[in-house]
UniProtKB/TrEMBL annotation:
It comes from the Bacteria. The keyword S-adenosyl-L-methionine applies. Gene3D superfamilies: Vaccinia Virus protein VP39. It holds the Pfam family Methyltransf_3. One of its GO terms (biological process) is methylation. One of its GO terms (molecular function) is methyltransferase activity. InterPro entries: Cation-dep_OMT, SAM-dependent_MTases_sf, SAM_O-MeTrfase. SUPFAM superfamilies: S-adenosyl-L-methionine-dependent methyltransferases. Its EC number is 2.1.1.-. This is O-methyltransferase. The lineage of its organism: Bacteria, Bacillati, Actinomycetota, Thermoleophilia, Solirubrobacterales. Keywords: Methyltransferase, S-adenosyl-L-methionine, Transferase.
Length: 212
């Protein structure tokens, strides 16, 4: 948790309830220890994707599809979302949730390593969301930036790691090595010559930037 308990409680009280499908997905994720984007951050992604008029979205790290669903719901009927996941069981579960959400037509869910898959994509994309292995963020970012249209939005999850990145000490299992990697990535992201952005304390820390 990055904000105070009181702020967190207030935000939770005022946030709209997820629909039945999303609630079921989150329950399953909690039961099976699947890491899933914070609920506020998920709504933020949906709002931002709609604000930039997204028609094409790329995501790294589908897991069982919670963030994917929020992003796909921001797309028009003829929109497209490409999402990469390397875990076969999670990929299969996500496919079945998207079918139930009647969103399969706009979600191209690839069971593939993102670094490999990103090299096969053609831009331009309007929104990119990075939520795979944290140690691979820098590689994924370098592959994604050239695919983004000018004005396109890049979002990255877990950049504050439960506060460990700011405090510089292990919290919630984030080790010293991972904190150092995260700090280096954050510096790189914020100084990137083709991006203008910032780090927000939403969820576990979301970095946001617009492609120049
Ligand atoms: C934090 S979870 C994603 C959560 C999801 N975005 C959500 O909020 O609902 C990270 C996922 O990335 C997948 N992953 C890790 N490295 C990957 C890679 N190189 N290519 C594709 N998927 C990867 C993991 O298997 C895991 O399911």
């Amino acid at each position: 948790m990055i904000v105070t308990d009181a702020v967190r409680s207030y935000l939770d009280e005022t946030r709209p309830e997820p629909d039945a499908l999303l609630a079921e997905m989150r329950e399953r994720g909690a039961r099976d220890s699947v890491p899933i984007l914070d609920a506020h951050a998920a709504v933020l992604l949906n709002v931002l994707a709609r604000a930039v008029g997204a028609r094409r979205i790329v995501e790294v790290g589908t897991a069982i599809g919670v963030s994917t669903l929020h992003l796909a719901r921001a797309l028009p009927d003829d929109g497209e979302l490409v999402s990469f996941e390397i875990d076969r069981e999670r990929h299969t579960q996500a496919l079945s949730y998207f079918a139930r959400a009647r969103l399969s037509a706009r979600i191209d869910l690839r069971l593939q390593d993102a670094a490999e898959g990103l090299t096969e994509l053609e831009g331009p994309f309007d929104v990119a969301f990075l939520d795979g292995l944290k140690a691979e963020y820098a590689d994924h970012l370098e592959l994604i930036v050239p695919l983004m249209r000018p004005g396109g939005l890049v979002a990255v999850d877990n950049v504050l790691m439960s506060g460990a990145v700011a405090e510089g000490r292990p919290i919630d299992g984030w080790s010293g090595d991972r904190i150092a990697t995260a700090r280096a990535f954050n510096d790189h992201f914020l100084a990137h010559p083709q991006l203008d952005g910032l780090i927000t304390p939403v969820g576990d820390g979301i970095a946001l930037a617009v492609r120049r």
